[in-house]
């Protein structure tokens, strides 16, 4: 029997992610090992195994977010995601401040053509 994969995400980081997602009850957290959210078949948040949260934002918000929070585009499995930003740990701890970006991400993703 295959061994069940286990998440390597730090427990504190996972708790902060869960707290953020809980601010919008209509958003379902998916993925046991690789937590993510999606709408219309498009992912809009993803917590990688290193504990880095990536969030999809409208193109107009990406540069300002990176400048304000001194961060970069989100990279996962060696691929840089052009409409995604890496959320700094310091911001992940500020649920109320990060919630507005989750809201924008969710609303933006709902407008994308369904897959």
Explain this structure to me?
- The chain is an alpha+beta fold and 115 residues long.
- It is built from four helices and five strands; from the N terminus they run αβββαββαα.
- It has a five-stranded antiparallel β-sheet.
- A hairpin with a 5-residue loop joins strand 2 and strand 3.
- Helix 1 crosses helix 4.
- The longest helix has 16 residues.
- The radius of gyration is 14 Å and the shape is globular.
- It starts with 10 loop residues before the first helix and ends in a 5-residue tail after the last helix.
In spatial order, strands of the major sheet run: 1-2-3-5-4
The geometry reads as globular
The main sheet comes to: 5 strands, antiparallel
The radius of gyration computed from the alpha-carbon positions, rounded to a whole number of angstroms, is 14 Å
Q: Taking all residues together, what is the mean pLDDT?
A: 95
Estimate the helix proportion, in percent: 25-40%
Q: How far apart are the first and last residues' alpha carbons, in Å?
A: 33 Å
Low-confidence stretches: none
Instruction: Tally the helices.
Output: 4
Helix/strand/pairing category? alpha+beta
State the total count of DSSP E strands: 5
Would you list the SSEs in sequence order as H and E? HEEEHEEHH
Q: How much β-strand is present in the residues? A: 15-25%
């Amino acid at each position: 029997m295959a061994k069940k994969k286990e998440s390597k995400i730090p427990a504190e980081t996972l708790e902060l992610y869960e707290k953020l997602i809980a601010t919008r009850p209509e958003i379902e957290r998916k993925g046991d090992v690789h937590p993510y959210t999606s709408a219309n078949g498009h992912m809009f948040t993803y917590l990688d195994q290193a504990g880095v949260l990536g969030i999809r934002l409208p193109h107009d918000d990406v540069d300002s977010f990176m400048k304000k929070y001194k961060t970069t585009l989100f990279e996962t499995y060696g691929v840089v995601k052009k409409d995604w930003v890496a959320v700094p740990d310091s911001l992940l701890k500020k649920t109320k401040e990060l919630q507005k970006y989750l809201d924008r991400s969710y609303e933006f993703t709902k407008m994308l053509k369904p897959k």
